[in-house]
# Entry
Amino acid sequence: MKPAPFDYVRADSVDEALDVLAQAGADARILAGGQSLLPMLNMRLARPEIVIDLMRIPALKIVDEKGGALIIHAAVRQIEIERRPNLAKDQQLLAAALAFVGHAQTRSRGTVCGSVAHADPSAELPLVLVALGGSVHLRSRRAKRKVAAEAFFTGMMTTDRHDDEMVEAITFPPKEPTTGYAFREVARRHGDFAIVACAASADAKGGRLAVGGVAERPVVRAMPLPGSSAINDALDEFAWTLEARDDMHASARYRRELVRRIGKSTLEEAVQCRA
Amino acid sequence: MPRLSAGRRHTIAFTLNGRAVDGEAEPRMLLSDFLRHVIGATGTHVGCEHGVCGACTVQIDGEPSRACLMLAVQAEGAEIRTVEGLAPAADRFSVLQESFRTHFGLQCGFCTPGILMSLDALLSRNPNASELQMREQLAGHLCRCTGYAPILRAALAAAEQLRTESTHV
# Structure
């Protein structure tokens, strides 16, 4: 299991990376932390002709905070976000979910934007981005555009990104002061891809539940508060609409049951966290 | 902007266990293969080659990382530490290594170099790491011999000894 041959470009600036990308299009792949791309290369599920390494571009190492929103550029590693001193206070859901992203040994290199660009339906960071209504900043030589997370993820490992675009940054919106957040998941081993992952938020009026690992992309919807009589029907309906499938890790039926149970307990935790 | 072409070998230089090393590799060569086949440092083991088993874990700029999920060309200029760099002298183990021996933290030894590098990184960063933190660190490694209990005992004992030693200095 070794990668097929490719040219390797170590870009010094965003413009350089975009120039190569504009020429090569779908034949090129962006390399950041490599924790999603390298397994794809090793298993030859991806066979790009050119690999463009972004990690030495200074402009992409920036983390910005604007009015409570967290803007993370493409060369920022997950561990850098995890170690932000105020993360649990400022970005409660992201902080809770990061502990489940891969292992310490992959978060040390993996980037936040890379996980989002890879769009694995079981991955935690795309789920959190959708749950919070975040956005993805795409850039090509032609233009820059911003896409809402829900529109960015279009299917299993497919996104709204065009071949000549790169994910330059993503924005996690500010934490709402009167909202509680919670994250839970079930996996075979802590750090493995989730069988079902749930990200919930709740305020006085109602809740929102996002589910990963079941449908082909993370899905979010409004939910009644867990104390109400409508919650069980709402969770059941949500579980069925995700069109779970059987695979070697879990049956569709088990996944639906996890959506009902973990979905509910995550919403309950979000209500309790509202302080 | 360096562009390294596919069919050619390119010189790669980095620091390995405190010493400058270099070698040649195609862009597609993994760091794990570069360490073993080009440098000849075979202490780093190769298991699954897609980041799951943890056998190839090394420290890159102080952080435990999978050598199989990194291209050798990405390591240019990096500070890399492998299991060969743990022992303070040729005839003496590090505290962590010795603790693995005392507590039977290994049987076949295939997973051991990766686990040592992960735990060494954790204990260097946080000498007071809790048992839960050690368990989470070990979650990134597969060991099919020990059942993990002796590994955890070895890690806890090593942490204790390192804390005692540092207070005596």
About this structure: The mean pLDDT of chain A is 96.
